[in-house]
UniProtKB/TrEMBL annotation:
<keyword id="KW-0963">Cytoplasm</keyword>
<feature type="binding site">
    <location>
        <position position="139"/>
    </location>
    <ligand>
        <name>substrate</name>
    </ligand>
</feature>
<keyword id="KW-0432">Leucine biosynthesis</keyword>
<feature type="binding site">
    <location>
        <position position="230"/>
    </location>
    <ligand>
        <name>Mg(2+)</name>
    </ligand>
</feature>
<dbReference type="GO" id="GO:0000287">
    <property type="term" value="F:magnesium ion binding"/>
</dbReference>
<comment type="function">
    <text>Catalyzes the oxidation of 3-carboxy-2-hydroxy-4-methylpentanoate (3-isopropylmalate) to 3-carboxy-4-methyl-2-oxopentanoate. The product decarboxylates to 4-methyl-2 oxopentanoate.</text>
</comment>
<keyword id="KW-0464">Manganese</keyword>
<dbReference type="GO" id="GO:0051287">
    <property type="term" value="F:NAD binding"/>
</dbReference>
<dbReference type="InterPro" id="IPR019818">
    <property type="entry name" value="IsoCit/isopropylmalate_DH_CS"/>
</dbReference>
<feature type="binding site">
    <location>
        <begin position="293"/>
        <end position="305"/>
    </location>
    <ligand>
        <name>NAD(+)</name>
    </ligand>
</feature>
<dbReference type="InterPro" id="IPR024084">
    <property type="entry name" value="IsoPropMal-DH-like_dom"/>
</dbReference>
<keyword id="KW-0479">Metal-binding</keyword>
<dbReference type="GO" id="GO:0003862">
    <property type="term" value="F:3-isopropylmalate dehydrogenase activity"/>
</dbReference>
<comment type="subunit">
    <text>Homodimer.</text>
</comment>
<keyword id="KW-0028">Amino-acid biosynthesis</keyword>
<dbReference type="GO" id="GO:0005829">
    <property type="term" value="C:cytosol"/>
</dbReference>
<feature type="binding site">
    <location>
        <position position="258"/>
    </location>
    <ligand>
        <name>Mg(2+)</name>
    </ligand>
</feature>
Length: 374
């Protein structure tokens, strides 16, 4: 639990494109929290991505990684700039986020898929299927088939080729991500569904055994169920509201989290968190970012939707700082603003009022004022 009297140390990395535009709106919320909730934030800002390439010739400096370790949490915007499309893969702006995840050992990616009542018609699914949807997908991100060995493409004696990737999970890798999922469930509806393919994969069998064991030993109060990944994909479209927290490996999580996030309608609305291992001093490295990229097509126009970034900050308050009341307030403020009919271009609908990035940010702060007064 964070002591509210201690300043919260945040590393803020706005990045490229719309990143700085949407991160600026979080700045308003931070100022509001300082003024109205007695919190103090110690903010350190630095360059990553194309912005860092332009200044320092690298997508991220070691110094920034050190600052990330020293912070209570990292608030990340987005990286990517077509201007750097010609450089080698290891110099691309996107390396910044990959390196941060790797260096901080961020193994659990959390992606909520929540449908705000006012946006229920934005989903491609029927309103009745998604109304009230609020699920959290926990995806293991540093193991599994994307990293397992052997891997590669080999040439066979007859000249044809064979591509190989290997799904590998160890007990400890499964235990740590399972604990994240169970912990989260306790802050939500207390239900976890673990997803694998134990019917055809030994790694899935081990996954199921280890999750079951962690549950029995440490989290017996949480409701646990198991589901095969193919069935889960189907259930997410058929009846997504049956889920609370889903926990799964890297490959299935990649696919299922994209599927689930699109149930909600717009990229501009979706936050995420990536958590690392708890350290000896009780702190846990964590990075919060919207799932969208730098959107070069709309950058600099002041029309980007800041809500995904603002909701990423709400996740930071909830999961890194245990400030549940403030996180709830921000989510409620977003919900109220949408209900009042304000929309950025990406979520615009007939009869609504179209606004830009900063008007949306200001409106959310005004809602916070109202919530604080009520
Ligand atoms: P993108 O998410 O940047 O944009 C996809 C589409 O969604 C665009 O039309 C964009 O205008 C729109 N969009 C995205 N966010 C929006 C917002 N907040 N408000 C309104 N509209 C929004 O994906 P892309 O175009 O495939 O990628 C652009 C760059 O971002 C690439 O360089 C890519 O590598 C990078 N990227 C970075 C991250 C990251 O930093 N974690 C994630 C994804 C993509």
């Amino acid at each position: 639990m964070t002591d509210p009297k201690q300043p919260v140390k945040l590393l803020v990395l706005p990045g490229d494109g719309i990143g700085p535009e949407v991160v600026r709106e979080v700045g308003r919320i931070i100022a509001w929290l300082e003024k109205n909730r007695g919190l103090t934030f110690e903010l350190t800002e630095d360059l990553v991505g194309g912005a860092s390439l332009a200044e320092y010739g690298v997508p991220i400096r070691d110094e920034v990684i050190e600052k990330a370790w020293a912070a209570d949490a990292v608030l990340f915007g987005s990286v990517g700039d077509p201007k750097w499309g010609h450089v080698g893969f290891d110099k691309r702006p996107e390396v910044a986020i990959l390196k941060l995840r790797q260096e901080l050992g961020l193994f659990a990616n959390l992606r909520p898929a929540k449908v705000f009542d006012a946006l229920v018609d934005s989903s491609t699914l029927k309103p009745d299927v998604v109304r009230g949807l609020d699920i959290m997908i926990v995806r293991e991100t540093v193991g599994g088939i994307y990293f397992g060995n052997p891997r590669g493409i080999e040439t066979l004696p007859d000249g044809s080729k064979r591509g190989i990737n290997t799904e590998v999970y160890t007990t400890s890798e499964i235990q740590r991500v399972a604990r994240v999922a169970f912990d989260l469930a306790r802050k939500r509806d207390n239900r976890v569904c673990s997803v694998e393919k134990c019917n055809v994969m030994e790694s899935g069998l081990l996954w199921k055994e280890v999750v079951t064991d962690v549950h029995a030993r440490e989290f017996a109060d949480v409701e646990l169920s198991h589901m095969l990944a193919d069935n889960c994909a189907m259930q997410l479209v058929r009846n997504p509201r049956q889920f609370d927290v889903l926990v799964t490996g890297n490959l299935f999580g990649d696919i299922l989290s994209d599927l689930a996030s699109m149930l909600t309608g717009s990229l501009g609305m979706l936050p995420s968190a990536t958590l690392g291992a708890e350290q000896a001093d009780g702190r846990r490295p964590a990075l919060y970012e919207p799932i969208h990229g730098s959107a070069p097509d709309i950058a600099g126009q002041g029309i980007a939707n800041p809500i995904a970034q603002i909701l990423s900050f709400a996740m930071l308050l909830r999961y890194s700082l245990n400030m549940q009341a403030e996180a709830d307030m921000i989510e409620q403020a977003v919900s109220n603003v949408l209900a009042s009919g304000l929309r950025t271009a990406d979520i615009m609908a007939e009869g609504m009022a179209r606004v830009g990035t900063s008007v949306m940010g200001e409106a959310i702060v005004r809602e916070l004022d109202k919530l604080q007064a009520s």
